[in-house]
Amino acid sequence: MDTQPDSLRAKNHRLVVRMVVIVAAMFGFAFALVPLYQVFCVVTGLNGKTADEAWVPPAEAVVDESRWVTVQFISQNHDGMPWQFAPEVYKVKVHPGKPTRVSFRVANPTDRHMVAQAVPSVSPSEASRYFHKIECFCFGRQELAPGEAESMPLQFVVDVGLPETIRTVTLSYTLYDVTEPQDNNNS
């Protein structure tokens, strides 16, 4: 009779160990999910995610002068971001393969030094694999003093491989306040 409770106790112990391992694995997966998702989005172009670093055009760039693609620019501020932020032109027509330069205007109307980060998105999401940023203010943080304004450059290429069914690409930026909180402790 005494062997049955030991057997039951051993089964319960194995069950508890398995459950702890499962919970730890789930926690680890959840922790890794965000970076994995971001990599997946960049590779596949899902959700219009674009690369976070400059694209280097090939030495022998090909330009498709037989067609035009309209590139539209949209800007918005994340909640609580007081800066003024807008493209200097709202759309351009480009030949695929030809580098194009535009600028966005930003101004800090506050009375404090602030730091911002722009996060891009391309739609339709399929087009993000064919939209290459050569130079972009979104690759780094932008710092502005109180009342300061600046023109921020963007140089890009729409790849000649862009499907011909896509005639308009929209590049949207959301501007986030990433200013570090000031330490009010003088000790």
TrEMBL record:
SUPFAM superfamilies: Ctag/Cox11 (SSF110111). Coiled coil: none annotated. Its main location: membrane. It is a single-pass type II membrane protein. GO terms for cellular component: plasma membrane. The keyword Transmembrane helix applies. One of its GO terms (molecular function) is copper ion binding. Signal peptide: none annotated. It comes from the Bacteria. The chain crosses the membrane at residues 15-37. It is found in: Cell inner membrane. Keywords: Copper, Membrane, Signal-anchor, Transmembrane, Transmembrane helix. Exerts its effect at some terminal stage of cytochrome c oxidase synthesis, probably by being involved in the insertion of the copper B into subunit I. Belongs to the COX11/CtaG family. This is Cytochrome c oxidase assembly protein CtaG. It comes from Thermohahella caldifontis. The lineage of its organism: Bacteria, Pseudomonadati, Pseudomonadota, Gammaproteobacteria, Oceanospirillales.
